[in-house]
Amino acid sequence: MTQTTLDTTATATAAGLPQVSHARNPIMPLDMDWVMGAQANTSAIERRCATLPGRRTVKKEYQAAWLARAISCIDLTTLAGDDTPGRVKRLCAKAMQPVRADLLEAIGLPTLTTGAVCVYHDMVPVAVEALAGSGIPVAAVSTGFPAGLSPYHLRVKEIEESVKAGAEEIDIVISRRHVLTGNWQALYDEMKDFRAACGEAHVKAILATGELGTLRNVARASLVCMMAGADFIKTSTGKESVNATLPVSLVMIRAIRAYQQATGYRVGYKPAGGISKAKDSLVYLSLMKEELGDRWLRPDLFRFGASSLLGDIERQLEHHVTGAYSASWRHAMA
Amino acid sequence: MTIPEIFETMEYGPAMEDASEARAWIAKHAGRFGQFIGGAFTAPGETFATKNPATGEELAQVTQGSAADVEAAVDAAAKAFPRWSKLSDHQRARHLYALARLLQKHSRLFAVLETMDNGKPIRESRDIDVPLAQRHFYYHAGLAQLRDSELPSHQPLGVCGQVIPWNFPLLMLAWKVAPALAAGNTVVLKPAEYTSLTALLFADICREAGLPKGVVNIVTGDGATGAALVDHPGVAKVAFTGSTEVGRKIREATAGSGKALTLELGGKSPYIVFDDADIDSAIEGLVDAIWFNQGQVCCAGSRLLVQENIADDFHARLKARMANLRAGDPLDKCIDIGAVVDPVQHAQISRMVSENNAGETYHAPIEMPSGGCFYPPTLITGLEPADRLMQEEIFGPVLVSSTFRTPGEAVALANNTRYGLAATLWTENMNLALDVAPKLAAGVVWVNATNLFDAAAGFGGVRESGFGREGGWEGLLAYLKPADAGKPVKPAKVHAPGETDFDGIDRTAKFYIGGKQARPDGGYSRPVHVPRGVLLGHVGIANRKDIRNAVEAAQKAAGWGKTTGHLRAQILYYIAENLGARAAEFADRIRAQTGRSAASAREEVDTALSRLFSYAAWADKFDGAAKSVPIRGVALAMNEPVGVIGAFCPEDAPLLGPVSLLAPAMAMGNRIVLIAGESAPLTATDLYQVLDTSDVPGGVVNILTGSHAELAKPLATHMDVDAVWCFSSTDISGVIEAGSAGSLKRTWVNNGRNPDWAGPTGEGKAFLRAATEVKTIWVPYGE
User: Fold this and answer.
1) What is the tens place of the pLDDT at every residue in B528-571?
2) This prediction's pTM
3) B428/A294 touch (CB, cutoff 8 Å), yes or no
4) In sequence order, which ranges of chain A are alpha helices (DSSP H)?
5) Which residues on chain A are in Cβ contact (under 8 Å) with B633?
6) CA distance, residue A154 to nearest chain B CA (Å)
């Protein structure tokens, strides 16, 4: 398994598409010894997560730069039944100009954008058109999102349709029942099919960790999805009762690290749902930096699935620039 | 760096804690501190500098405590004691509560000052040391409130002399001061010379809290000041945390003084990783084990034992983790590794590592600050038990590593040490964890975690890691004594031969060793006469080799400690049954040897039978506890047998004496070597015939006769004896305490006063506690 030289071009990808910045995770055989050997000690993992914010912190200009980095990794998302073209266009405008221009100018990052825009399939064409020329990719949730229980062939077909409509990233949902019943082969086969359907589009596997019961299951499902060709693994649909948490993230991140060490391929990580504070985003970034390294602090390998996070970051950035605490009405809504 | 540059590099940058409040506090004291005695600071005397080890900057001048300072402090504490000890539980509880509240109100000041003086990362002082210190005072406010209702018939000891180390200056102060005050004692505390400042700030807090003058006194200074405090005759109890070397000296210095003593000393604690563990979590645990406080932690998991089949992968991942550690200014909120406490300590660590030629040494490839006392996180792999660094405490950020093949071998390697403070084990297999934890020679065991502490959970060691527990009820008991001080012992009466002499068949009692009768190694025996001179028989005169043989037999009977309480109860009942069948004979023998009345002799036999029943009852009822610690998990306080106990029997109760000692020892799973009283030894030797017929496994009880004066030293110095009890009429308490210093075994000596064997102080929990070690096993859980 060789690394390609594409690796060094991370900065060239404003869009942060992993498949153009480094060797894409190919499909590996399902290694059940590895999967079943995975362990996750919940209390120890929780302790690590509980102490991390006390161990790492960034202040002043470092904090501003880190918050800007967080913005660059946001999949700005709307996944509501009442989404309309107008609503999606407004979101896309925000993705292209995530922070007031004067503030971006002040921190020296005038061209900052979010990592992607994430919508349902029907909104893909609107988003693609709205983002045309910006370099910001459109991600589509797919495969019967959020439950993933529609007919199998339709789930595969949905991916193909979204890719055809211009989505460059597909966020699929796995069948939780395969995890809960220990049917790892079925999970592997499903993921492999989804990956194939994506073609060149890059695929994020949503594990719906809030429904998997244990961290051990999260670890195992992460490994199986990576073996089956996931470009990213993602925590949640945002619709489960428990979405992204630090412990779940730590388990998935460590699985990514183990996978990279064993195969040489880098898989991205996307926590989604529940991350709404600027401070939380900094903790996530430090978790990535500590456990996976600096390479995972870029949008080709890290995304936040979030809708309200950006607003809090904007206020923090204004505070950094002006020294005064900000108000939400001073920033454009998404 | 500009924001766009940081946006690319994603470096952390500095995040400095503001030190101005701490500096202002030092300035308020004009940068020079006297002693805190009788509720006020004295004028500074001869002073020395206390420095910030990260920068070398002088922070303040503190006073080198003189003998006169110690005298004045002990005097103030002694004067405060009568009133303080007579306060109601509730009044003492209010004072402790006030101290806890003030510690909380000034928490950041304490944390910053601690970090500046000690060099530990601000994260640790802020998130660990100071909150634990607060918790300790809150918890002990509760113990103060409950003392009389839960521990009736106990009294405070008096003035406690407390000497604490530099690695957790405020926390160790809390561990010492809170239980002492809760129990009703007054205190003279000497902080370590490198780190006096938070103790002096605590003195300020005591004033602010309105603590009565003289209840807490703080005397700064070096080892000489500490020695003066330890030696002061007005001190009733010495509590020390620090090195094994100094602890041993304190044991010797206080021997025979009647001072109570607890020692919390060094360690080389094993950190065992089984192949089914969550490896990444186990590695993260090591960060908390050996790179916490720069490894300057007595219970640091400094000896990694990893299962051979995963060792290479484990070490590779560990090295990768080490590369992510950040060293830097301890006041930086974004670092893991601060400064070691002093250049002396730095030189010691460097020397120990550089003198080692074994294994492979790996220093974390991280940026180290220039200047200051910084030592890089270090891993030495491929060491064997025979290597010096696997045995000796480094007290720095240096982890040594070896491998094992099986759980049995892991336990053997873990226990292959002079120390016994703490142990950590990682496995996802509950059967394995709960099997291994009790087998580890340690006072604290952490399962799938490390360095967890709480005021409710006892902390302390076995072997050369010291004795006594801090925290929990068991910690409070170390600051109390029985209200009944007992009665002065009467000298042994050895009767001279009279005019009429022996007219039966010659009977020579032998020793009872390993379940068999044994002749004295030296080949000497002595006659035993009745008070009027008639010869009753002969008993052997034991020498050091008989002690050796008896201890060896007792060690071989280690299986007794693994039997069930139910079985031990059955055997104790059986002893009572067989003794009861021969009650008349034993009563006659007591009467013959002592000249006491038939009724008195018979009463002693009956009391002995009752005592056997008492401890048979206790054998399966002296329960441990599940402590209420603030984690999702349990902290199990398990009462484990001490091991091999050597015991000198009293003179005034020929049968009840030995029974009062062997029964609690046996009930709790110990083996015992009894040295019979010298006045009436034939009752003790008669007893072995009862034991022989009662299914007592060989070696569990061993009985010798001989001179207490001669046997005290060989028994007390024997390295394979875990505890020595002395109820002798011979003045050997000091010899035993001094002799125990070699292996730092526990001692329980009478200092010339014995309980009333027939009364309530002759049995009960005091004996059960002496016969057990509390092991705290932390088991966090959650899936």
Assistant:
1) 988 888 888 999 999 999 999 999 999 999 999 999 999 999 99
2) 0.96
3) no
4) 18-21, 32-37, 42-55, 60-72, 85-96, 101-107, 124-131, 152-164, 176-180, 184-198, 215-227, 246-263, 278-291, 309-322
5) 43
6) 35
